[in-house]
Predict the 3D structure of the following.
Amino acid sequence: MNVSSAAVQACGLVKTHGQGQSRVHAVDEVDLEVPQGQMLAVMGPSGCGKSTLLHLLGGLERPTDGEVWVAGRRIDTLSERALARMRRRSVGFVFQAFHLVEELSAAENVELPALLAGRSRRQARRRASLLLDRVGLAARARHLPSQLSGGQRQRVAIARALVNDPLVVLADEPTGNLDTAATLEVLRIFEELRSAGQTFVIVTHDERVAATADRLVSMRDGMFVDDTRLAGSHPRGLGGLIGLEG
Amino acid sequence: MGSIVLVVRLVLADVRRHKVQVAILLLAVTVATATMALGVSLRGASDTLYEQTRAATAGPDVVALSGDRGPAVTSALAALANDPDVVAHHGPYRIVYADLTTRDSTSSPVVVHGFAETPGAVNRPLVTSGQWVRPGGMVLERGFATALGVGVGDHVTIASRSYPVVGIAVTAATSIYPWAAQIGPGGGPSDYSGLAWMTRSDARTLASSHDLPVTLAMDLKLRDPAATEAFREGHRVSIIRINFHSWQFTAVQDMVILRDSQPILVVGSWLLSFLASTGVTALAVGRAAEQTRRAGLLKAVGAAPGLIATVLLTEYLALALVGDALGLVIARLTVPAIASPTASRIGDAAGLTGATVATATVLAVAVAVLSTLRPTLRAMRTATVTAQSATAYQPRHRPWLTALSALLPTPLLLGVRLTARRPGRVVLQACSTATIVIAIVALLIRFAQPERGYGLDGSAALPNLRGEHDRQLMLAVAILLIALALVNTITLTWTTAIEARPSMAIARTLGATPGQISAGLSTAQLLSSLPGAILGIPLGLGLFSIFALGNWTVPPFSWLLGAALATLLATAALTALPARLAARQPVAQALSAETA
Ligand SMILES: Nc1ncnc2c1ncn2[C@@H]1O[C@H](COP(=O)(O)OP(=O)(O)OP(=O)(O)O)[C@@H](O)[C@H]1O
Ligand SMILES: [Mg+2]
C-alpha cells in the first residue's frame, strides 16, 4: 500500500492497559488509513477505545503493538522528543475539556504552539489574530479562558490546533461539553475547514457531528465494526442537514 | 468529645500518609529551635560554669591589683586585709610577666602567680591533674595547657629556664584563657596571656634573675559577696592606685570569648525559623489544596467545614511541639561543647532555663501557626463555598510577563509563564535563595577577617580560639541553613511541578518536548531564585555589619558574586531532578487526570 498518500495510517494497532486479570484491550488490532483531506468520524459506546485511538494517532501514547504513520513517517518508534517535534508540525489536538492553559489569554494560547514550533513572536501573533478572527473571537483575544463560555473556549482550542497548519486535526468529542448553539458554531468552523481540505479525525457521540464527515467508523471493544463512506459534502448546507434551521 | 477523637484520628491518618513531609517539618522546626535555644542559653551556661569553678576553687569576691610594686604598694594591699568588710584574704602575691616556650617551640606570653605550697583560704586553684606547685615545679592553668598541648610531666621554658609541669589547675580569680592577665605591667594594657603558678620563691627568682615586670595582687573574701561594688566605691580614694576586679566582673569577662557566638546563633536561628516557616508554608499550601479536595468527602460524613482547618492546625502544632522538644534536647546536649571553648572552667553547663524553653516554644508555635494560617483559612473558605470541584486557585493574568517571555527561547518561555502562575511561591523561593546567599556571604566575611593569634606577638602558632569558635559555629549554622534551604527548593520545585502538570501536559500536546518542560520548570525556579541571590549579597553584608563588633573588611566583590552564582547553579542542578521526573509523566494520563 502506498504509505505516503495517507495523512495518518495505522496497521495492526494494539493498546492494552493493565496486566493479568485486569488487562484491558483498549484498542485491538485496528487498521486505519486516513487520506489527506478526509474528515473521519469515529463513533462508539463509552469505553470502546476512541480516545485511546486518538492518543495513539497523535503520539500521546505508545501502542503495545502495531505501527502508526503520520505524514508518511513511522512515529511509534520515535523518541519523546521527536514525537513532540512531529506534533508541532503535523498534529493539532482539540479536546472535550478544551484544555486551554488557564493562565494564558485566548491569543496567547493560540500563539503557544507557533512559538514552540520556532516561529517569531510577530509571526505567531499575526497567525493567532488571523485564526481568532476566523473562529469569530477577534474581540476576545485578550480574555482568559475563565472569562469565556464553553463554546468560545472550544473555538479558541480549535484556533490553537490550527495555528501551525497541521496535517491532521485530532478532535476528541469537541462538542461533548457544548450546548446546541455552541455545537452549531463549532460545526460551522469544521465544515469550512473541511471544504478547505483539512484532514480530520473526530471522535464523537454526536450524530450531527458525524453527519458532517466524509467517512464514519464505528468502534466497539477496541475494534472497528463498521466503516461507512458518507456522501461527502452535502449540497443542502449544514443547517438543513442537521435540522437546526428554522 | 467525639469531634476530638475524629480530629486526632484524621491527624494520625494524615501523618501516616505524609511521612516525608512530616520529617521535613520536624527537621525544620527542630533545627530552628535548637539553634535559638543554644543562642539564648549561652550567657546562662557561661555564668554557671563560672559559678561552679568559683565554688570549687574558693574564688575571691574581689581581686585587688596594683600595676606598681614596692613596700608602699605591698603595705597598701596588705592593709585591705584589715578592712572590716573583708573576712578572708590571700596574698599579696607576685604576678610576673614572661614568655613561655614549649618543647615544640610554641611561644606565648604568660603571667606567673607566686603562690604558697599549701593553698590558703581564698583562691585555692583546683588541681585537675598532677599536683600543686613545689620548688622547681610549676602548674599550668588548664585552658592555657590545653591550648599549648602541654600535660603533666612535660617541660616548658620560661625566661630561658626549663621547668617541669607538675600539675594542671583551674581558678576563678582570673578570666579564662587567654585573658589571664587582668592587669598589664605598670598598670598598662595586657596581651593575650596564659596563666601559670610557681612557688613564691620561684616566682621571685624568676622575676629578679631576668628583671621581668612584676605587679602585685591580693585576693579578698567579703562579708557580703554581693557587695563588691560598694567595697570598690569605699576604697576609691587612695594614694596608691589599686584596681578591684569583682567576681561579677570576671564572670562577665568570660563571656568575651562568646561575644560573637550569641549573635551568630540567634541571628542564625531567626534565619532558620524563617526558612522553616517558608518550607512549612510551601508544604501547607500543597496540603491545604489536597485537603480542600477531601472537603466534600468529609462533609459527606457530617464534618463541619472548620474541621479541615482544625485538623491541619492541630497536626502542624503537634508536630511543631515535637520538633521543639527535640530541638531543646539537642540544645541541652550541645550547650557544654559550645558554651566553653576553653578548658578554663569546670562543671556542667546549665540545663535550659524556663525562659529558654519558653522562647524556643514560642518560636516553634509561631512557625507552625504563621505558615499554616493562610492555607488553612483558604481551605476553610473554599470548603464552605464549593465542595469537591474546587480549583482553589484562580490564575492572574500578567500580560507584560507573557509578552516578555515570548521573546525568550521556549524553555525560558515556559519557565516565565510558570513563574507568573504562582507569585507567592516565587517569593518563597527567592527567600530561600536569599538565605543561602546571606549565610555564604557572612561565612566569607568571617573567613576573610585578619586575626591575631594567641601566641607571642600575635603568632598563629596558638590559634585565636574565639575566631575559631565563631567560624565553627558559623559554619555549622550555615550548613543547617543551606540544608534547609535546599530541602525547601526541592519541595517548591516538586509542588510547582505537580501543580503545573495540567499546563505542562497541554504544552506537550502542543509539541513541547520533555526536555523543554523540565528545562522550563528548572528555569522557573531559577528565575524565582535570581532576585533572592542578588538581594542576598547586600542583606548578608548588612546583617554582618549590624551584628559585628569593631572593624571588618568586605571580602573581594568577586567572591560575593561567585557565591551568588554558585547558589544559582546549585539551585538549577537541584531542581533538575524533580523537574525531569515531572516531565516524564505520560501526557494522556495527566490530561485525563485533569478532567476526572
Ligand atoms: N490508563 C489506563 N489504564 C487502564 N485502563 C485504561 C486507561 N486508559 C483507558 N483505559 C481503558 O481503556 C478503555 C478505552 O478507554 P477510552 O478512554 O479510549 O474510551 P473512550 O471510547 O474514549 O470512552 P469515552 O467515550 O467514555 O470517552 C476503557 O475500558 C478504559 O477503562
Ligand atoms: Mg474518550
Remarks:
- The first strand of chain B starts at residue 62 and ends at 66.
